[in-house]
């Protein structure tokens, strides 16, 4: 699923939009799967005058070549080379190609990032585990691009927490009658020992994700949600944030308007899909370049 915004509205270019941020952008959702329906619901329900964008339709194909800004669910596509080509097209045409990863907007991720930034102790080890069932897509590596392409968001999680020098050092894939287990080892300047473990089962099971960091001083930092205490009596409660998909969409709108730079998102997208391909090479996984 992806979303595009019109580059020109009533003859106005992106440059003009930066100066006239009150102009309402038209948004089109491409694809109406699970994520697409959430986008359609959220954008339709929002106040277009406040957000600065309104839903004008939903269709089924991408449209960078036709001068449209695009927001796409991760991964952008199933290979690093094609991802690079699409981002180059966006740059040449002055368009925004924004890859969504709402996991980076969750309270648990933001809390983890804050705690890691505040620590003075060396990070010795980081582990990220995800278990879930087959869904007709993730287990077909030729369609999905491989286990760490379809789950590139996990690589992006380490990238966002630890920095842009993340590199693959190994990868293993075990497939059996019950499902598959894919393991990646990575390293970066902030932590030399990083592991991502993916477990996908043919049997239906709850999706479970767990992340843990071990520090040199013995501290264990994990992403277990804390219990939020009730607000004190008489203290006004903060306004409720929009949903994660809507928060991501608002970032996209800001990039189209020129309020926010898209360089960091582009760098993360390119780097992490390349790391995924390198992991697959360690596995000996040969995939079509889609």
Radius of gyration of CA atoms, rounded to a whole number:
20 Å
Look at the structure and give the mean pLDDT. 82
Determine the fraction of residues in helical runs and give it as a percent range. 25-40%
Cα distance, first to last residue? 16 Å
In CATH, the homologous superfamily of the largest domain goes by the name Dihydrodipicolinate Reductase, domain 2
Structure classification: alpha/beta
Estimate the strand proportion: 25-35%
CATH architecture of the largest domain: 2-Layer Sandwich
The main β sheet shows up as: 6 strands, mixed
Report the CATH topology name of the largest domain. Dihydrodipicolinate Reductase, domain 2
Detailed description of the structure:
With 290 residues, this protein is an alpha/beta fold. It folds into two domains: 102 residues, 3-Layer(aba) Sandwich (Rossmann fold), CATH 3.40.50; 133 residues, Dihydrodipicolinate Reductase, domain 2 (2-Layer Sandwich), CATH 3.30.360. It contains ten helices and eleven strands. About 6% of the residues have low confidence.
């Amino acid at each position: 699923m992806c979303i595009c915004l019109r580059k020109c509205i009533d003859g106005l270019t992106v440059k003009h939009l930066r100066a006239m941020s009150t102009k309402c952008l038209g948004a089109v959702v491409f694809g109406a799967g699970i994520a697409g329906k959430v986008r359609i619901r959220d954008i339709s329900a929002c106040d277009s005058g406040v957000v600065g964008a309104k839903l004008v339709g939903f269709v089924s194909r991408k449209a960078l070549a036709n001068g449209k800004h695009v927001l796409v669910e991760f991964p952008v596509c199933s290979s690093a080379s094609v991802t690079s080509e699409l981002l180059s097209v966006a740059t040449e045409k002055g368009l925004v190609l924004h890859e969504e990863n709402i996991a980076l907007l969750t309270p648990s991720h933001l809390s983890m990032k804050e705690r890691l930034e505040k620590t003075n102790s060396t990070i010795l080890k980081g582990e990220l585990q995800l278990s879930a069932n087959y869904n007709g897509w993730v287990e077909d590596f030729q369609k999905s691009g491989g286990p760490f392409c379809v789950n590139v968001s996990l690589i992006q999680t380490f990238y966002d927490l630890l920095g842009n020098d993340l590199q693959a050092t190994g990868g293993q894939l075990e497939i059996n009658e019950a499902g598959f287990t894919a393991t990646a080892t990575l390293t970066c300047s902030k932590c030399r020992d990083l592991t991502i473990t993916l477990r996908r089962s043919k049997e239906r099971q709850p999706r479970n994700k767990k992340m843990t960091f071990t520090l040199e001083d013995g501290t264990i930092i994990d992403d277990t949600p804390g219990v939020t205490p009730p607000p004190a009596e008489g203290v006004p409660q903060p306004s409720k944030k929009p949903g994660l998909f809507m928060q991501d969409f608002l970032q996209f709108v800001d990039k189209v308007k020129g309020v926010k730079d898209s360089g960091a998102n582009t760098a993360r997208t390119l780097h992490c899909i390349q790391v995924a391909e390198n992991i697959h090479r360690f596995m000996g996984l040969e995939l079509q370049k889609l």
